[in-house]
Design brief:
A four-stranded antiparallel beta sheet has the order 1-2-3-4. The protein is globular and about 45 Å long. By secondary structure, the chain is of the alpha+beta class. The chain has helices spanning 2-23, 57-79, 87-109, 135-157, and strands at 30-33, 37-44, 113-124, 127-133. The protein has one domain (2-127, 134-157).
């Protein structure tokens, strides 16, 4: 299940990034839901919120490759302990791994990640904080949240 889910995430992520980069103009918001959601095509050379974008390509790309390989090892090792019947956790791991691969492909071939899902600016410490991400980022986040929810629900039923 993990392979199938991660393959679908990778395909959807790369297809969405291709369409956005083909048909959208960089930094030109296209309102989807006014004051809530836009499509804004940007290139993000860093990680979430542009962290590490100031580093040179020769440091940044190997760093992200190592992070992705590390995440892959964690997902692989973790799934070995999950019973095949536990489809929820396996689905979540597929989302996480597929998202990691989607951004990995961008970093290897484009040297940056295509982001385009633009949620209304979020104010953090009186700063206007851009919240632009992609399908891969969404799947990683949903996968992590799903794992926490499933473990929380499972721990409530565990008599120990």
């Amino acid at each position: 299940m993990i392979r199938i889910v991660s393959l679908w995430v990778l395909i959807l992520d790369q297809l969405s990034k291709y369409l956005v980069s083909r048909y959208c103009v960089p930094d030109q918001p296209i309102p989807v839901i006014p004051h809530v959601l836009c499509l804004t095509y940007i290139h993000n050379p860093g990680a979430a919120f542009g962290f590490f974008s100031h580093l040179g390509v020769w440091i940044r790309i190997p760093f992200f490759i190592l992070i992705t390989l590390g995440a892959g090892l964690v997902v692989y090792a973790y799934q070995r302990f999950i019973p095949r019947e536990n489809k929820g956790i396996r689905f979540a791991l597929g989302l996480i791994w597929g998202g990691a691969l989607g951004n990995f492909v961008d970093r290897v071939f484009r040297k940056e990640v295509v982001d385009f899902i633009d949620v209304e600016r979020i104010h953090v410490f009186s700063q206007n904080f851009p919240w632009i991400f992609n399908v891969a980022d969404s799947c990683i986040t949903v996968g992590l949240v799903l794992i926490f929810i499933l473990y929380f629900l499972d721990s409530k039923h565990d008599p120990a």
